[in-house]
Design brief:
alpha/beta; single chain
Length: about 170
């Protein structure tokens, strides 16, 4: 227990500087569609990886729970959302045909922040087609507020997905 407290404390001490120094990176995990003859990439999920100044990659299992507990997850999510918007915009500017990228929406701040407006403003800022910026809500996120946000996001034109589906019980 004492080691985990020390690790959490060390993570909290480094989080702001790590964000400022660009130590958080977007890694894309492909999503495939399979048919009888072939598999093809139909999208990707944006995953955050923290690569420290020492070049070592910290495990998300180590830092995400700390960030969710201390509220830093919102800053990290905002950073990731903007990185994904910039990435899609760059692909469009280069004449490439982008694939849809899904990003996580943490349940940690859904009650306190207007996530719908924030993400819509980002989409408009970077002129990203809304169908290319998809949202994943964790399956274990079950509340009246979550359902209201899910409905608002869907009404705003976002594609919603369930993250970690099958790992718990969901009424969504």
């Amino acid at each position: 227990l004492m080691d985990s407290v020390k690790i959490a404390g060390a993570i909290e001490e480094m989080e702001e500087e790590a964000l400022k120094n660009g130590e958080f990176h977007v890694f894309l995990q492909p999503k495939y569609s399979y048919d009888k003859r072939e598999a093809r990439i139909v999208g990707a999920e944006a995953l955050v990886r923290w690569i420290g100044k020492d070049g070592k990659c910290k495990s998300p299992a180590e830092f995400i729970p700390v960030f969710e507990k201390n509220g830093f997850i919102f800053k990290l999510d905002c950073y990731m959302w903007e990185c994904v918007c910039k990435m899609i915009r760059r692909w469009l500017d280069e004449g490439k045909t982008p694939i849809p990228i899904s990003v996580n929406v943490s349940r940690a701040y859904l009650k306190n922040i207007d996530v719908v407006k924030y993400i819509k403003d980002l989409i408009e800022k970077y002129q990203v087609p809304i169908e290319l910026f998809q949202l994943e809500i964790t399956e274990t996120t079950e509340s009246k507020e979550t359902l209201e946000y899910a409905n608002r996001l869907k009404e705003s034109g976002f594609v919603l997905m369930m993250d970690d589906f099958g790992s718990g019980y969901a009424n969504l």
